[in-house]
Amino acid sequence: MEVVILKTGAEVGDFAARRISLGAEDGSISVLGVATGSSPLPIYSALRRLRTPAIENLTAFALDEYVGLPKDHPESYHSVIHREVAEPLGLDPEKVHVPDGGAKDLPAACTRFEENIRDAGGVDLQILGIGASGHIGFNEPTSSFASRTRVKTLTAKTRADNARFFESPEEVPLHCVTQGLGTIMAARQIILVAQGKQKAEAVARAIEGPIASMCPGSILQMHPAATVVLDPDAASQLKLTDYYIRTYKNRPSWQR
Ligand code: F6R
Known about the structure:
- By secondary structure, this protein is of the alpha/beta class.
- Helices cover about 35% and strands about 15% of the residues.
- Fructose -6-phosphate (F6R) binds near residues 130 and 137.
């Protein structure tokens, strides 16, 4: 895993945005996996500032969606992705896919979502955040490493963490539809971003802990092209910090 520790959350966003933008320009990224939540917001702002024309041509797939929130609810991921990613970046709404959490037949909708990803040629770069529980997407602890898009039950911790987006904690849905860990691992490149002390433990478990379904993010240790970009607080429980900093400083010129 490539581990990059930068000085601020804004720098974390700039780093990821530059990679995405270069990939869009050189044609290696045409399908982008997008995440909701607070962590990737600096990436989307930086992409807006960069104004790379090729970004507008991207196809996007969201990681997850709540079950039971109407699509037009302001906190449905359908609304969030369109408001915070698709519109500001000028993506074609027809090419922005969010799992359907309101489908009558949810398993069939999950299968269709997987087929849509496959038909688009797979995800070139997946943006990820990580939950304090270690989840990526909404793959909560004990999720199968082989899982594909499906319905999951949110943990009490995730519901409490996401209550900040709702008027009351009870409003946070109990269930979600999420890309599986197997789906996420099929992306050709992954960039996970994390900022703040509240992520430090999950980050350390994902990067340096044993690969275990109790910390779903630890599966990224098995990905051939995963980069984790952190601010100093999110990196504060890592053991090999000096090594990561030295490696990044001395990275070969073709990686700059
Ligand atoms: C969002 C998602 C989640 C979040 C994670 C961190 O689509 O799948 O895994 O990335 O819960 O959320 P924030 O960034 O709000 O701390």
